Amino acid sequence: MSLNDEVELLRQVPIFANIEPAKLKLLAFTSERLTFRKGLDLCVQGDPGDAAFIIIEGEADIIIKMDNGESKTVNKIGKHQIVGEIAILCDVPRTATVRASSDVIVLRISKDLFFRLVGEFPQMAVQILRELAARLENTTTQLAKALGK
Amino acid sequence: MSLNDEVELLRQVPIFANIEPAKLKLLAFTSERLTFRKGLDLCVQGDPGDAAFIIIEGEADIIIKMDNGESKTVNKIGKHQIVGEIAILCDVPRTATVRASSDVIVLRISKDLFFRLVGEFPQMAVQILRELAARLENTTTQLAKALGK
């Protein structure tokens, strides 16, 4: 894939939509692109977290291990969404397992790069805030359902 | 309270810690300070949301209405924390009721002001990201417990 194609692709990710192309080229250079086959884990609950992932292609399940030892899929994420940023924002181990439900291509963004980007591009921070807020709303709704049974 | 006292107070709120005093003076002027007596609601689940609140003094319960109609306290917030930002970030109705569990003093930050601040001060955005991430982690843990029963 050419560098221009790569930049065009990054511009379609909402959190990068307002970043200048020159900076996106830098991002394309400094972040790592990884492929996970269907069924493989992008990250595992309890592990230390040192990076976030942007989904470029494919879908993944967000799976949590319950107190009784069973696992449950509590959410799905897909193209152009960010995942794995909780552990780097809170300095806590991974709060969930992220498992590829199809073949998945991601951009791996290290903790350092994540904080540099968010500090330099307030619009990116706002987009991630919206994403986290939406996920918190979804989780709170599920909690209300689970408690009300 | 003098303007300098007011600025000093705002500097103790983590999300404002890295904002210059001159800007904090502007914030003290443009935001509204409100008092809620113990038992009163800062906001009510289902209502439209047009502002976030910074707790200056006191504590409040985060209460959600469950599917069976009962209410449950799922979280507590206290001094220097932010609350009510989900509805303005996601453009959804209030996802929970916030009820003063003691007399509470808040700084009410309108939606417009919130986005201006976050856009202008990346460090504030990062602090709010950390706060949201911590709350998401807490809610996910509670969900895992509730589902695993």
Commentary on this structure:
The structure is a homodimer of 149-residue chains. With 149 residues, chain A is of the alpha+beta class. Chain A has one domain: Jelly Rolls, CATH 2.60.120.10. Chain A contains five helices and eight strands. In chain A, helix 1 packs across helix 2 (21-30) and helix 4 (111-120) crosses helix 5. Chain A is globular, with a radius of gyration of 16 Å. Chain A binds chain B through residues 64-70, 72, 74, 85-86, 89-90, 92, 95-96, 115, 118-123, 125-126, 128-130, 132-137, 139-149, and chain B through 64-70, 72, 74, 85-86, 89-90, 92, 95-96, 115, 118-123, 125-126, 128-130, 132-137, 139-149.
Tell me the span between the first and last alpha carbons of chain A.
Answer: 50 Å
Overall radius of gyration of chain A: 16 Å
Question: Biggest interface pair, residues each?
Answer: A-B, 45 and 45 residues
Tell me the CATH superfamily of chain A: Jelly Rolls
Total number of beta strands of chain A? 8
Overall pLDDT level of chain A: 87
User: What is CATH's topology name of chain A?
Assistant: Jelly Rolls
| Multimerization status | homodimer
In the CATH hierarchy, the architecture of chain A is Sandwich
Task: Offer a few descriptive terms.
homodimer, 149 residues, alpha+beta, Jelly Rolls, 4-stranded antiparallel beta sheet, 8 strands, 41% helix, globular
Helix and strand arrangement:
Two copies of one chain form a homodimer.
Chain A: H1 3-11, H2 21-30, E1 32-36, E2 41-43, E3 51-57, E4 60-65, E5 71-77, E6 82-83, H3 85-90, E7 97-100, E8 104-110, H4 111-120, H5 122-147
Helix pairs in contact in A: 1-2, 4-5
